[in-house]
Write a sequence for this structure.
């Protein structure tokens, strides 16, 4: 069953295109994570928060990534990390155009 992982945390920037350039290597690393289907990068410069919405093929992959990424963020000095895991109701989600792959 597909699993959604949501992260958000305080973030001082960079934002937008500058952030895309600065975090390219991290994005490439995340793309290679076991079980990852896709990630949407989220940012709210006005509130100083960033994070992401991830779709994993299964819950064990999502939980393993949550633990690893929380530790990685903490090693960067990030605090107040929020991570939530959700099961996907694939039947209803298919009606509203959700696609696993």
């Amino acid at each position: 069953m597909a699993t959604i992982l949501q992260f958000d945390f305080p973030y001082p920037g960079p934002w937008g295109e500058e952030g895309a350039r600065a975090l390219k290597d991290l994005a490439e690393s995340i793309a290679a994570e076991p079980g990852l289907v896709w990630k949407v990068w989220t940012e709210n410069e006005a509130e100083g928060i960033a994070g992401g919405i991830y779709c994993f093929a299964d819950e064990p992959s999502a939980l393993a990534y949550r633990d690893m990424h929380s530790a990685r963020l903490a090693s960067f000095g990030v605090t107040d990390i929020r991570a939530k895991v959700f099961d996907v109701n694939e039947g209803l989600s298919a009606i509203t155009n959700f696609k696993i792959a």
Observations:
- The first strand starts at residue 3 and ends at 10.
